[in-house]
Amino acid sequence: MDYIIMLLPSMLKGLTVTLKLFSITLVMALPLGVIMGMARISSFSPLRWFMEFYVWLFRGTPLLLQLLFMYFGLMTLGLRPEREMAAYLAFVLNYSAYLAEIFRAGIQSIDRGQYEAADVLGLSRYQTMKNIILPQVFKRVLPPIGNEVINLVKDTALVYVLAISELSRVARTHVMRDDTFIPFLIAAIFYLMMTGMVQRFFKWLELRYDYFH
Amino acid sequence: MYILQAIDIHKNFGSLGVLHGVTLQVQKGEVIAIIGPSGSGKSTLLRCLNHLERIDSGRIEIEGETIAQNNSEGQAVYSSEAKITQARRKMGMVFQNFNLFPHKSVMENLIMAPTRVKNMDKAEAEESARLLLAKVGLSQKADNYPFELSGGQQQRVAIARALAMNPDIMCFDEPTSALDPELTGEVLMVMKDLALEDMTMVVVTHEIGFAREVADRVIFMDEGVIMEEGQAEEVLLNPRQERTSAFLSKVLMAR
Q: Are strands B2-13 and B57-62 parallel, antiparallel or unpaired?
């Protein structure tokens, strides 16, 4: 017990790093995903092709590799990126690609008739997207987005390759130093608490969107 | 003076010709029923009038404003976006599948366009929406969501929603085709009331009874052309074309 209390400060510090990466990624990647999802089905074909390439690139390579690329790649270019910056960048770009695909599919799943009804009523394309299409899309994409957010909680552990001391790296350091697996247990509990909250939050969101079919 | 004119309309979907020179002229206050077998192009014609489809050649005029006309090569050229938007505002449209906004209550469906397109004051829009709901017999349903309504009720809301923009012309694309038979009556009743108020109406329909009772003029389309048109009684009771009578007997037999 004393050992656990002794561990807590550094574990909590790791948790903060994890949570920061998690929140920054989510706050940036969600709106980017919506925009990229729309760009993916834009009538302007170069934009569409670019987005297709982008999604292929970031879904088609391991996030771990993207992290290394972002850091060492930028360094070779003569830039001196901070490790955290490189991590945020890689995570935001990677998660945007996944979310873009979810939003694209969501937008395409809305019945043509909704666009036509908005059109004959004189709503502009922007008004149609904002007031008619996207609110319906959000309801439909909640389950897959929930999946992605839970993945994100766990993916944050990958930034250990950039020697960033997030939760799991801190745990590992203690395990190796103190020759006990208790730090791993604590890390697991922290992850379960985070994913549990995400799960509950999405359940609540789905209920909130249950007022229409 | 016609309130709506579509002259020599041609429309293809890729290599498939759908309209082969259709001319439709509508006078103010006139109720026109367009009948014909599926695939005859009647819905496409209606959608061309509404700018939901673009025509390949021909001329469309709404209340004297030219929306599209042929260039010297005989291809339709559309007027400016602003002019089209302006002209379309004069037309309301009711779809076969209602197309109500499922995430909006009945009231929100009705005031959406008036408040956002016409910048009408919300209270004012709600007030006129209530009058419209009373007119279609759904005063009690203002706060309900579309999924809580029957098909017939949803279609009546859709009619009220179109009327909320105060159109001069109402287009109906098979408004009762998606409904259970026992629910068509309530929708047709609302449409009949509209006709009695001298609303200009273009109705694509399979309801021969409705056409006969309400329409001033009936148009029979087949294979992308108008085969026959005239006064409702004339076309429906004494069709001159063999195809018209064949179609009518098929439709009436199914009743």
A: antiparallel
B112 contact residues in A (CB cutoff 8 A): 121, 123, 131
Would an 8 Å CB–CB cutoff place A122 in contact with chain B?
A: yes
Q: Kindly write down the DSSP assignment for every residue of A143-198, as one continuous string.
A: HHHHHHHHHHHHHGGGGGGGT---HHHHHHHHHHHHT-SHHHHHHHHHHHHHHHHH
Q: For residue A94, which amino acid is it?
A: N
Q: What pLDDT is recorded for position A78?
A: 79
Question: ipTM score of the complex?
Answer: 0.93
Amino acid at position A34, single letter: V
Partners of residue B16 on adjacent β-strands: B13
C-alpha closest to that of B160 among B127, B185, B134: B134
* Separation of alpha carbons A9 and A115, rounded Å: 54
Name every residue whose Cβ is closer than 8 Å to that of residue A120 and which is 6 or more positions away in sequence: B50, B52, B88, B91, B92, B93, B162
A38-88 tens-digit pLDDT: 999 999 999 999 999 999 999 999 999 999 999 988 888 877 778 999 999
Q: What 3-state DSSP class applies to B32?
A: strand
Radius of gyration of chain B (CA): 18
Rounded (5°) CA angle B238-B212-B248:
50
Distance from CA of A180 to the nearest CA of B (A): 54
Using CB atoms, pick whichever of A113, A116, A213 lies closest to residue B147: A213
Q: What are phi and psi of A49, to 5 degrees?
A: -65, -45
| Closest Cα in chain A, distance from residue B16 (Å) | 21
CA distance B53 to B11: 9
Nearest chain B Cα distance for residue A134, angstroms: 11
Cβ–Cβ gap A123/B102 under 8 Å: no
Q: Looking at chain B, which residue has its C-alpha nearest residue A111?
A: B99
| pLDDT tens track for A88-137 | 999 999 999 999 999 999 999 999 999 999 999 999 999 999 999 999 99
Q: What is the pLDDT of residue A77?
A: 83
**Nearest CA-CA partner of A212 in A139, A144, A146:** A139
Interface test with B, best of A110, A111, A120 (most B CBs within 10 A): A120
How large is the C-alpha radius of gyration of chain A? Answer: 21
For residue B185 the two structure tokens come to: 């009556």
Task: Please list the ranges in chain B whose pLDDT falls under 70.
Answer: 254-255
Residue with tokens 């909640």: A142
Query: Which of A114, A121, A127 is closest, CB to CB, to B165?
Result: A121
